[in-house]
Amino acid sequence: MTDDASARYKRHRFPAEIIAHAVWLYYRFPLSLRDIEDLLAERGIAVSFQTVSDWTTKFGLKFAHQLKRRSIGNFADKWHLDEMVVSIKGKKYWLWRAVDANGYVLDALLQSRRNKGAALRLMRKLLKSQVVAPRVMVTDKLRSYSAAKREIMLGIEHRSHKGLNNLAENSHLPVRRRERRMMRFKSAGQCQRFVSTHGQIANLFQLHRKHLNAADHRQLRALASATWREIALPIQA
């Protein structure tokens, strides 16, 4: 790493490689902060789980934003939208999510409502971040989607059937696993930060292994790792 890139981490006691690796471990695998503390300690790196938490909060979204900018225009034109309930401190929220036809996460938005207004906010966020509109939108039978689509996506084909939307429903599973590992999200802000970061990093390392032979899988995994290093190491702290 160049001296200039190293200088961007000058306020941190640990080098960029260790910080980026800790953030990668947290969002790439279903590990707790204490798990990561132990893994780093095994390598002779004495860092507390509170410091790892600070790193994931400070750097995670920055990495995710860069990955998201790189992915614009590379997703399929068929979008699957769905929502799942999240309980935070006894209050019910709805996590709205959109994935493309290949299972890549387009965006996720935590909201307190499950109505037309919430569906509109998700669609506007998607159109702004993806730049182009989809060819097809697939949802379950929640009528809020149809009402919102009539306002901003009139020319888009809409398929409303629960059985067609397994991609979006399955995309909730990794977040459910992490929610259990964290013993629930502590606040709405924490949940939104986590899903916004987790989805983009998961996209980078989603290689559809069952469709690849071993050599192709290793090559794509190496490319994903190279992209991660390019994104993470030179970032401005």
Automatic annotation (TrEMBL):
Domain DDE: 78-206
Domain of life: Bacteria
Keywords in alphabetical order: DNA recombination, DNA-binding, Plasmid, Transposition
GO molecular function: DNA binding
Pfam families: DDE_Tnp_IS240 (PF13610)
Keyword DNA-binding part of the UniProt annotation: yes
Transmembrane intervals: none
GO biological process, one term: DNA recombination
Coiled coil location: none
Cross-referenced NCBIfam families: transpos_IS6
Name listed for the protein in its UniProt record: Transposase
Natural source organism: Pseudorhizobium banfieldiae
